[in-house]
């Protein structure tokens, strides 16, 4: 709305005043469309806060916002999502970012220090947000309890660490940890020092706090007397481990104490202005005007004049609508500060809340009321508080308000069903009509996103009533993830009985997720009124709910049967809970667990690793749990990622034009409208490519820009260059592309099979005589199993900055990529120049996981062409939805298998066909399939095997590498059929696995001999450490005593081959410079994405050169220092680059040998320099002995194997499909660990990522190939509350590996599959539920085991009510790839 149309408010623009990190910021020209995050990063150059999703779903952008509250008379400190906070909303506030609390240049805040030293930061991109969530908690609660600690992170995600080390470091701030002495005494809390024991349970006599003898030893338990690093092993020999085992990865005694009195004060200027600010403020941007009214009367006047204007308090809904739904709101009114809507008061009937009260305020007020009032009065309050536990994250609850939640009218609102069932009333007001009271009943939501509040009306307050003594209220919610997730279905139930009876006087049943609005089951309520609350009521209620809440099979959101089943399952829970309150004897004991509210213990566990040998010198860093080299920079926000680099002069931003069709001919591309928009410089398309538009990482089957047709949704059609990201993205959406649909449109694996759409050749591994083996087998099973794809969800999306140098066609690319060499080569090809004109540089990535191995080249090549055309630097960082549409995922797989086995459980034959959905180009899909074929035997020896792999070509985005690279899929299918073998044979799951398990000297189905096979050791140790057999009996007993809660227990082994399956990639180079001051600059071919590769390489160099790690520095990875590098992938980077670094350092050391007689390292270096000895050396390594031939099925595809085992126990809710991982024990073979802290971090991170793959991460596609799950709102990765309650990780001791650097082993990918132990524990629990329903034998459960799949597999009377519609009788809302 143009400013001239506004005749209210001040004549001129207002001045925006706020503080950032104690510094006053005054802006005369604030843009209402700019978020706080954009302002911090682009205007103030504070890049610590990160953009992870743009919708308040990941927490990477978290900052602390402080305001003085007149009503409460104190300063409020709130954790806020900077990506959603409009900059204009910060007037009068003080913002604190991660840079404002500490730095490496001054000193670290204890919050920063503890996270770093506890190894809680890997890639570091999420770290500033986590730091600020914790910092805000401590500003409000200097000594929080564990519940407050865990709740503080509900709105934060981390993809690397697995969360455990974050909680481990931060629990040192809690009451539970600190006890009475603050926990900072050198030997732990005084409460724990009993009977000569320190806090960690080690005897104090002659021992330090970490349990290692002090006599002649340093605090870390390593020999300190007179040892040097000279003569340390620097080859492949083992470290000579003893049985000395440690469980300490960091020293609590080293932490600086927290002193709350030293925190920055709130700016006095803002405290003074908070009370006297009666001025209307107006901020005007290009498209939006923002008004902050001085009075509530002014709000009503504005709404009368502009009824379509949006009222914004928290911007948690409007911000998402504007960014992702392209909504435009020309006028924003911000009344959140006004006292008329910010209050609460007790009345005779309940509590009245102002509509502007935040959800945090609502929660805190009701929590106080519950503590102060009689229980029967607060049952509704308790239901609201319980629901708010699962409502978004702290950052959203801190700003989202009651009125906004109601008038947004979301059909899956968590609170609106409660308000409807309770019969709450709202007071609304308008300028001309005054105020009126509206009851929230079945008429309150007349349609989708509509309410009974008129456009010119403003909600003033909400009345929340007390409950009566004979009234009961409960609310339920089922989502994809427990914390911070929108509901699939939610429900709120209220029942009131006639005095002294169980006869229903009135009842309210409200549901979300069952219609375009929140709905009430009125017919059911009418039918139940007057009936007794007894067992006869239940079938009547369920039958009526079935009629009241219909859903067609093609309903938006899908899952029709599951959603309908939840309605009756929720009611059953309510029925039992009320029955229990009326008379517990009426509820059978096996049913009572269905009534309990969810409660979870604080996570805990242990990490065990082997200490370095006694004789190892202190300066030899190999084998020690040293901190990630970038950790301190990451916790302070100083670590620089691609988009953190300062803008270059003349820089332009790239906005991508992406295909909206899965398979179509391009008829025309018209950028004319975009070119007329503000800030736009030019459009770039296929005709602008100076070199070749044909590209591809493996084969040349892709285009930089689609030229004649598109073959998937999300394919790059063109790009717009503009002065800002907002301008570029807005203009890109205005480019008009005309299409003509083409057939066939192949989306799923089944579509590809039907049309025989495969990439050739079709590879096969065959061994033995299948026909004969099947004939001799006692039993044969045949089946089909599926595993879905998985989004990488690295917190840093793909980013690039490309700088043309003009001279000789030179181009410099700064890119977030795992593959600098491929980035260089494909950009050079597109530019039509030799590769020596293009340099690619990588400082670090905010996560990669394989997603940045090849698909980032799509982005960097587009930017290279754009930079060439503009002859100016260009920049891009994909929005989360763009990244998810463009980059591809882990491959979805389908398997069809036939297994022959003997009655004792021995498997004699396997015939398996694997199909993966490659997408629209080959990319790395054949390599992924080959690895799946190699791993299709699982950890088992099978004499007769045929494994065939079909790589399906479809009209979806090209899928790509992802941690495990096909291995987890192949292994999963093996565990699936071997589980069924056990059931068919009637023997235990444990026994059938042990019977078929790989052993030393066995031949795999690809004829590779297993040497130094640690499978049995890992397995036996894990079974013993987990106390499997005792817990198996306990689980069986629990399941016998409970009908609606079930537990499951499962053990799973893993064997993972290490090497690139493309043999030529098994090479690496390194470059070492020694400067005359003795400092060392190390460069190698690997990239750092959080996995600690640079840290390990410095440890390797430190050992070989015999100098402290502090003298060695790694700046970046670049193609002009180490050429032709292999991608950082396949878990082989430490092996390959470590050996290259070792060889380069040995060359340097050999040259220095003549000068080593006397003096220090620096003396040797200077002497060599003056003697004109070269102090720079390269190292090159290629893995020996790799020579597999798939046609002949002979040779060695892998250098060695990593082994591991895991045992997991889960508890499922049979009525909702919810589950909790109670405990996981992992034993992992990592050889002689280079760095136990990093390796354990990799194991835990891989496990939690795998847990997401197998239980909750689900891609949702439309039948037309459009990805629905394009952000954290719909795609759920595990959060803090999803990790095992108890997680024990143990590194296998005394298992050196002579085939890798310093006897170590790879660790990045192998542990991921161990998370399938959770999947099979879930399946075990489901089996018990099915047995109670009379269903025996095998059943199919595809991955991921989502709540929907778990619930529908637990077949019972409720699922029987809602049979699935016949396939083909309707068009599904969503499909499975």
Automatic annotation (TrEMBL):
<dbReference type="InterPro" id="IPR016208">
    <property type="entry name" value="Ald_Oxase/xanthine_DH-like"/>
</dbReference>
<dbReference type="Pfam" id="PF00941">
    <property type="entry name" value="FAD_binding_5"/>
</dbReference>
<dbReference type="InterPro" id="IPR036318">
    <property type="entry name" value="FAD-bd_PCMH-like_sf"/>
</dbReference>
<keyword id="KW-0285">Flavoprotein</keyword>
<feature type="binding site">
    <location>
        <position position="53"/>
    </location>
    <ligand>
        <name>[2Fe-2S] cluster 1</name>
    </ligand>
</feature>
<dbReference type="InterPro" id="IPR036856">
    <property type="entry name" value="Ald_Oxase/Xan_DH_a/b_sf"/>
</dbReference>
<dbReference type="InterPro" id="IPR002346">
    <property type="entry name" value="Mopterin_DH_FAD-bd"/>
</dbReference>
<feature type="binding site">
    <location>
        <position position="391"/>
    </location>
    <ligand>
        <name>FAD</name>
    </ligand>
</feature>
<feature type="binding site">
    <location>
        <position position="849"/>
    </location>
    <ligand>
        <name>Mo-molybdopterin</name>
    </ligand>
</feature>
<keyword id="KW-0408">Iron</keyword>
<feature type="domain" description="FAD-binding PCMH-type">
    <location>
        <begin position="283"/>
        <end position="469"/>
    </location>
</feature>
<dbReference type="Pfam" id="PF03450">
    <property type="entry name" value="CO_deh_flav_C"/>
</dbReference>
<dbReference type="InterPro" id="IPR037165">
    <property type="entry name" value="AldOxase/xan_DH_Mopterin-bd_sf"/>
</dbReference>
<dbReference type="GO" id="GO:0051537">
    <property type="term" value="F:2 iron, 2 sulfur cluster binding"/>
</dbReference>
<keyword id="KW-0520">NAD</keyword>
<keyword id="KW-0479">Metal-binding</keyword>
<dbReference type="Pfam" id="PF02738">
    <property type="entry name" value="MoCoBD_1"/>
</dbReference>
<comment type="subunit">
    <text>Homodimer.</text>
</comment>
<feature type="binding site">
    <location>
        <position position="58"/>
    </location>
    <ligand>
        <name>[2Fe-2S] cluster 1</name>
    </ligand>
</feature>
<keyword id="KW-0411">Iron-sulfur</keyword>
<dbReference type="InterPro" id="IPR036884">
    <property type="entry name" value="2Fe-2S-bd_dom_sf"/>
</dbReference>
<keyword id="KW-0560">Oxidoreductase</keyword>
<dbReference type="Pfam" id="PF01799">
    <property type="entry name" value="Fer2_2"/>
</dbReference>
<dbReference type="InterPro" id="IPR016167">
    <property type="entry name" value="FAD-bd_PCMH_sub1"/>
</dbReference>
<dbReference type="GO" id="GO:0004855">
    <property type="term" value="F:xanthine oxidase activity"/>
</dbReference>
<feature type="active site" description="Proton acceptor">
    <location>
        <position position="1309"/>
    </location>
</feature>
<feature type="binding site">
    <location>
        <position position="931"/>
    </location>
    <ligand>
        <name>substrate</name>
    </ligand>
</feature>
<protein>
    <recommendedName>
        <fullName>Xanthine dehydrogenase/oxidase</fullName>
        <ecNumber>1.17.1.4</ecNumber>
        <ecNumber>1.17.3.2</ecNumber>
    </recommendedName>
</protein>
<dbReference type="InterPro" id="IPR016169">
    <property type="entry name" value="FAD-bd_PCMH_sub2"/>
</dbReference>
<feature type="domain" description="2Fe-2S ferredoxin-type">
    <location>
        <begin position="14"/>
        <end position="101"/>
    </location>
</feature>
<dbReference type="InterPro" id="IPR014307">
    <property type="entry name" value="Xanthine_DH_ssu"/>
</dbReference>
<feature type="binding site">
    <location>
        <position position="414"/>
    </location>
    <ligand>
        <name>FAD</name>
    </ligand>
</feature>
<feature type="binding site">
    <location>
        <position position="965"/>
    </location>
    <ligand>
        <name>substrate</name>
    </ligand>
</feature>
<comment type="similarity">
    <text>Belongs to the xanthine dehydrogenase family.</text>
</comment>
<keyword id="KW-0500">Molybdenum</keyword>
<feature type="binding site">
    <location>
        <position position="83"/>
    </location>
    <ligand>
        <name>[2Fe-2S] cluster 1</name>
    </ligand>
</feature>
<dbReference type="GO" id="GO:0005777">
    <property type="term" value="C:peroxisome"/>
</dbReference>
<dbReference type="InterPro" id="IPR036683">
    <property type="entry name" value="CO_DH_flav_C_dom_sf"/>
</dbReference>
<feature type="binding site">
    <location>
        <position position="158"/>
    </location>
    <ligand>
        <name>[2Fe-2S] cluster 2</name>
    </ligand>
</feature>
<feature type="compositionally biased region" description="Polar residues">
    <location>
        <begin position="227"/>
        <end position="236"/>
    </location>
</feature>
<feature type="binding site">
    <location>
        <position position="126"/>
    </location>
    <ligand>
        <name>[2Fe-2S] cluster 2</name>
    </ligand>
</feature>
<feature type="binding site">
    <location>
        <position position="963"/>
    </location>
    <ligand>
        <name>Mo-molybdopterin</name>
    </ligand>
</feature>
């Amino acid at each position: 709305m143009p400013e001239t149309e506004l005749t209210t408010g001040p004549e001129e623009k207002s001045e925006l005043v706020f503080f950032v990190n104690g510094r006053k910021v005054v802006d005369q020209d604030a843009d209402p469309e700019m978020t706080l995050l954009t302002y911090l990063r682009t205007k103030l150059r504070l890049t610590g806060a990160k953009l992870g999703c743009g919708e308040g779903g990941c927490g990477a952008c978290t900052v602390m916002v402080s305001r003085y509250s007149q009503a409460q008379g104190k300063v409020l400190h709130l954790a806020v999502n900077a990506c959603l906070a409009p900059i204009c909303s910060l007037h009068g506030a003080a913002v604190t970012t991660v840079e404002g609390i500490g730095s490496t240049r001054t000193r670290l805040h204890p919050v920063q220090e503890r996270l770093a030293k506890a190894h809680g930061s890997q890639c570091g991109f999420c770290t500033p947000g986590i730091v600020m969530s914790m910092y805000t908690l401590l500003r409000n609660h200097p000594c929080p309890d564990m519940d407050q600690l865990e709740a503080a992170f509900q709105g934060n995600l981390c993809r690397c660490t697995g969360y455990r080390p974050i909680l481990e470091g931060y629990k040192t701030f809690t009451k539970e940890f600190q006890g009475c002495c603050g926990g900072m005494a050198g030997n732990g809390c005084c409460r724990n020092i009993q009977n000569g024991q320190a806090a960690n349970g080690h005897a104090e006599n002659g021992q330090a706090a970490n349990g290692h003898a002090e006599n002649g030893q340093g605090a870390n338990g390593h020999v300190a007397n007179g040892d040097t690093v000279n003569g340390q092993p620097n080859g492949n020999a083992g470290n000579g481990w003893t049985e000395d085992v440690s469980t300490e990865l960091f020293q609590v005694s080293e932490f600086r104490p927290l002193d709350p009195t030293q925190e920055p004060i709130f700016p006095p200027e803002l405290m003074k202005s908070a009370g006297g600010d009666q001025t209307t403020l107006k901020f005007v941007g290009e498209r939006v005007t923002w008004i902050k009214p001085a009075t509530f009367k002014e709000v009503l006047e504005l709404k009368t004049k502009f009824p379509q204007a949006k009222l914004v308090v928290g911007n948690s809904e409007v911000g998402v609508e504007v960014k992702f739904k392209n909504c435009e709101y020309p006028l924003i009114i911000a009344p959140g500060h006004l006292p008329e809507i910010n209050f609460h008061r007790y009345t005779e009937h309940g509590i009245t809340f102002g509509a502007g009260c935040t959800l945090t305020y609502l929660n805190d007020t009701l929590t106080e009321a519950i503590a102060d009032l009689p229980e029967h009065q607060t049952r509704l309050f308790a239901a609201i508080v319980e629901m708010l536990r699962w409502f978004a994250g702290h950052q959203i609850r801190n700003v989202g308000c009651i009125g906004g939640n109601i008038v947004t009218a979301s059909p899956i609102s968590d609170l609106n069903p409660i308000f409807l069932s309770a019969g709450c009333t709202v007071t609304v007001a308008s300028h001309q009509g005054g105020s009126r009271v509206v009851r929230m009943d079945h008429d309150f939501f007349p349609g989708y996103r509509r309410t009974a509040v008129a456009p010119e009306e403003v909600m003033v307050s909400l009345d929340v009533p007390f409950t009566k003594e004979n009234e009961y209220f409960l609310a339920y919610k089922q989502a994809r993830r427990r914390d911070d997730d929108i509901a699939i279905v939610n429900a709120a139930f209220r029942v009131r009985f006639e005095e002294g009876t169980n006869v229903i006087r009135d009842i309210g049943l409200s549901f979300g997720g069952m219609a375009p609005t929140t709905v009430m089951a009125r017919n059911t309520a009418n039918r139940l009124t007057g009936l007794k609350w007894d067992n006869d009521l239940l079938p009547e209620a369920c039958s009526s709910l079935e009629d009241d809440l219909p859903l067609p099979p093609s309903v938006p959101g899908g899952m029709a049967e599951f959603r309908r089943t939840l309605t009756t399952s929720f009611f059953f829970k309510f029925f039992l809970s009320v029955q229990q309150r009326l008379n517990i004897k009426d509820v059978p004991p096996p049913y009572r667990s269905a009534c309990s509210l969810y409660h979870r213990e604080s996570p805990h566990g242990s990490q065990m690793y082997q200490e370095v040998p006694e004789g190892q010198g202190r300066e030899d860093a190999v084998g020690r749990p040293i901190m990630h080299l970038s950790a301190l920079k990451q916790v302070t926000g100083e670590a620089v990622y691609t988009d953190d680099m300062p803008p270059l002069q003349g820089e332009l931003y790239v906005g991508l034009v992406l295909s909206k069709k899965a398979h179509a001919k391009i008829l025309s591309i018209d950028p004319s409208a975009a070119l007329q928009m503000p800030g736009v410089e030019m459009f770039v398309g296929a005709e602008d490519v100076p070199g070749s538009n044909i590209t591809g990482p493996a084969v040349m089957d892709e285009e930089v820009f689609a030229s004649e047709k598109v073959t998937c949704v999300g394919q790059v059609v063109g790009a717009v260059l503009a002065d800002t990201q907002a301008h570029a993205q807005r203009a890109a959406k205005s480019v008009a592309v005309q299409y003509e649909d083409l057939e066939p449109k192949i989306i799923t694996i089944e579509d590809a099979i039907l049309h025989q759409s495969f990439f050739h050749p079709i590879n096969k591994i065959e061994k033995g005589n299948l026909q004969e083996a099947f004939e001799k087998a006692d039993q044969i099973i045949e089946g089909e199993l599926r595993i879905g794809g998985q989004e990488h969800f690295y917190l840093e999306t793909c980013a690039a900055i490309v700088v043309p140098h003009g001279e000789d066609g030179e181009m410099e690319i700064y890119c977030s990529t795992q593959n600098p060499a491929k980035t260089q080569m494909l950009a050079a090809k597109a530019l039509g120049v030799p590769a020596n004109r293009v340099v690619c540089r990588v400082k670090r990535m905010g996560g990669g996981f394989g997603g940045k191995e090849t698909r980032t080249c799509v982005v960097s090549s587009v930017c290279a062409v754009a930079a060439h055309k503009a002859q100016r630097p260009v920049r891009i960082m994909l929005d989360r939805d763009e990244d998810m549409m463009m980059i591809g995922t882990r491959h979805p797989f389908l398997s069809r298998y036939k297994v022959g086995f003997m009655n004792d459980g021995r498997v004699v034959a396997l015939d398996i066909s694997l199909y993966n959905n490659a997408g629209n180009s080959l990319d790395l899909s054949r390599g992924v399939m080959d690895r799946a074929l190699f791993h299709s035997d699982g950890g088992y020896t099978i004499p007769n095997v045929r494994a065939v792999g079909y790589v399906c070509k479809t009209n979806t985005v090209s899928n790509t590498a992802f941690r495990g690279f096909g291995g987890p899929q192949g292994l999963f299918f093996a565990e699936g059929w071997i589980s069924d073998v056990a059931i068919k044979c009637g023997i235990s799951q444990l026994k059938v696995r042990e019977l078929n398990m790989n052993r030393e000297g066995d031949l795999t189905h690809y004829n590779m001999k297993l040497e130094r096979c640690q499978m049995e050791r890992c397995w036996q140790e894990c079974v013993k450490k987990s106390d499997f057999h005792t817990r198996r009996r306990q689980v069986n007993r629990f399941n016998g005593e409970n009908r609606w809660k079930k537990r499951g227990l499962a053990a799973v082994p893993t064997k993972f081959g290490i090497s690139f399956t493309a043999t030529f990639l098994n090479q690496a180079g390194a470059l070492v410079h020694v400067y005359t001051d003795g400092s060392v600059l190390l460069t190698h071919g690997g990239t750092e994405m959080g996995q600690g590769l640079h840290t390990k390489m410095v440890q390797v160099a430190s050992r070989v050169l015999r100098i402290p790690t502090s003298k060695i520095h790694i700046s970046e990875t670049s193609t002009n220092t180490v050429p032709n590098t292999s991608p950082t992938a396949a878990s082989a980077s430490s092996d390959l680059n470590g050996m290259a670094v070792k060889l380069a350092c040995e060359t340097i050391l050999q040259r220095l040998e003549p000068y080593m007689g006397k003096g220090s390292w620096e003396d040797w270096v200077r002497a060599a320099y003056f003697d004109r000895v070269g102090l720079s050396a390269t190292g090159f390594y290629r893995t020996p002995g790799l020579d597999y031939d798939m046609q002949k099925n002979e040779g060695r595809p892998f250098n060695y194997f990593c082994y591991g085992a895991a045992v997991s126990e889960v508890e499922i809710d049979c009525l909702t499909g919810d589950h909790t991982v109670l405990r996981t024990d992992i034993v992992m073979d990592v050889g002689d660990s280079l760095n136990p802290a990093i390796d354990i971090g990799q194991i835990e991170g891989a496990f939690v990522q795998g847990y997401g793959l197998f239980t909750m991460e689900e891609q949702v596609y439309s039948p037309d190939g459009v990805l629905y799950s394009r952000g954290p709102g719909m795609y759920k990765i595990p959060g803090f509350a999803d990790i095992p309650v108890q997680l024990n990780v143990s590194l296998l001791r005394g298992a050196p590996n002579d085939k890798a650097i310093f006897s170590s082993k790879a660790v990045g990918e192998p542990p991921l599959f161990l998370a399938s132990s959770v999947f099979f524990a879930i399946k075990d629990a489901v089996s018990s539920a099915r047995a109670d329903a009379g269903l025996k034998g095998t059943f199919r459960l595809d991955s991921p085991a989502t709540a929907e799949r778990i619930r529908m597999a637990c077949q019972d009377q409720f699922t029987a009510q809602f049979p699935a519609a016949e396939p083909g009788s309707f068009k599904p809302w969503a499909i499975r790839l």
